[in-house]
Design goal:
Two copies of one chain form a homodimer.
Chain A: H1 2-13, E1 15-16, H2 19-37, E2 42-48, H3 52-68, E3 71-77, H4 83-95, E4 101-104, H5 114-119, H6 132-139, H7 149-160, E5 169-173, H8 180-189, E6 193-197, H9 204-207, E7 213-216, E8 234-237, E9 241-245, E10 248-252, H10 257-260, E11 266-267, H11 274-292
Parallel strand pairs in A: 1-11, 2-3, 2-4, 5-6, 5-7, 7-8, 8-11
Antiparallel strand pairs in A: 9-10
């Protein structure tokens, strides 16, 4: 009896929130919805320039699209293209009836006006949910909002592992428009109490352990460490830092995984946590848009 | 010496953040800017129906406009007007070159689509900062954002009384699109750590005293009481509840003022706190728009 209890305790003691596993399992839902759709939707990706990291991300999107049966068309535009020329290309995709979703792989070269480029995307094809139209829907808590893929991926991962957010205290580290803020807004929509911390937050070490769910999106490896966490917490690592050591590409998150994992209850790794879920959510958005088109 | 110290201590012991006094003093800035503008800007207010509370708010806006020398035109539309008809009226004001700002007095009758009505306002005349265009600017932390008047009023009041927000922990109770969320976003822009609480937040009594600045925007009189606060805190009351007793109109905030005031360091009253600052901020927005027109 004691042994059995010990085993059960060991099982529920902590959980690795495996994004690949969750995506693998959830993909069947997307495939079913694609079947019901009756046509193969197309996502158009605009890549401006040839940033290596962007190319890798696009490759991952293409691989997943192929797996579930979605077409991805990547339009690579010259690094020195003007904002007006990018907008003109986006407008062509807006009126192309064979395209259901459009994204611009970010970041774009600095000479371009990111806001103007994003706003050129028709809200009805805005698969990344970044236009002001979609932001307003999310802001108002509308169920019609297309939610930025990373934020959506985080909560889909939590939901897959049965972690309820309602009434919990969610702490987000990072206040970017692309990740931190939409994550906070979505957590609020899901009835969490939400705190947003950032580089100007005082005494992070005292604050971070107070959260039930800690979501770190800063890009500073090792920011979340022994002092930041407590027993019973769920830790979601959204940081991605890429380093090249001896020609080898090494990816790390914000969380010092080896020391944090033994303390907390649930933790998502990097790589293999939120990353795969972000890709999943992008295509979930695409299918939502396709069903409405 | 002891007496002098005691007197100083008494002076800095607590401060009533008097919105009327702040507005009176700050109005001179607006008057100076109006002088430099070289013309008298016009704000067009659309009031739909004849809600008594709305009429009172509009009257206050008119009074302040008269005082500083701004024209206000109130267009009262029928209670049963359609969304399309309201939009058509707004579009006329959009192209009227003698109009620099447009607002729709909220709430509008329930049969109308508030989002469609608000989105009809040209972002260049959106004095309440409620269109998706302005929301996106605030979201991105742009200095060009027209900030919703209540949120702007709160931070102008704090600034007037020398209360720095940067690095402080600001707690907002309430997550409405009109007040709670823009207040949180503006606090974040001003480098505060921000927590948003609401009806689903557990154990408010433990959480609320942890904030340096507590902003309550719920409309529940007496929500913030002895248990919610601590020494050293700044409390901003944004709640407004109107009650009629024996034919007398009585306004109360969220804060149980008489018991909270002796505990905290700074407190804004209701009425006479954020309310006058909201009116001030609306006209500050109008002048910003007029200078850019």
């Amino acid at each position: 009896m004691r042994l059995v209890l010990f085993c059960i305790y060991s099982i529920i003691d902590y959980m690795i929130l495996d994004g690949k596993k969750a995506r693998e399992s959830l993909s069947q839902r997307l495939e079913k919805r694609l079947e019901n759709l009756g046509f193969k939707p197309k996502l158009v990706i605009f890549q401006i320039g040839n940033d290596e990291q962007s190319s890798l991300y696009i490759e991952k999107k293409k691989q997943f699209a192929k797996k579930i049966g979605v077409e991805v068309e990547c339009n690579r535009l010259a690094n020195d293209i003007s904002t007006e020329e990018v907008i003109s290309e986006i407008k062509k995709a807006n009126i192309d009836q064979s395209t259901q979703g459009i994204i611009v792989q970010l970041p774009v070269p600095k000479h371009l006006d990111t806001t103007d480029v994003i706003e050129a995307i028709s809200p009805q094809k805005d698969a990344d949910g970044l236009t002001s139209h979609n932001l307003k829907l999310l802001w108002e808590g509308s169920s019609k909002a297309i939610v930025p893929a990373t934020a959506l991926g985080i909560f889909t991962l939590l939901d897959f592992y049965g972690i309820d957010v309602s009434g919990k205290h969610v702490g987000v580290i990072g206040r970017s428009s692309l990740v931190g803020k939409p994550t906070a807004l979505l957590a609020l929509k899901k009835n969490a109490t939400v705190t947003v911390c950032h580089s100007k937050t005082k005494d992070l070490d005292s604050l971070l352990p107070t959260f039930d769910i800690l979501i770190s999106a800063t890009g500073y490896p090792g920011l979340v460490t022994v002092k930041s966490v407590r027993k019973g917490q769920t830790v979601i690592d959204v940081g991605i830092s890429v380093d090249y050591q001896n020609g080898e590409r090494a990816v790390s998150g914000d969380v010092d995984f080896s020391v944090v994992q033994p303390i907390v209850e649930n933790i998502s790794p990097v790589p293999g946590g939120v990353g795969p879920m972000t890709v999943y959510s992008l295509f979930e958005n695409l299918i939502n848009l396709s069903e409405d088109s």
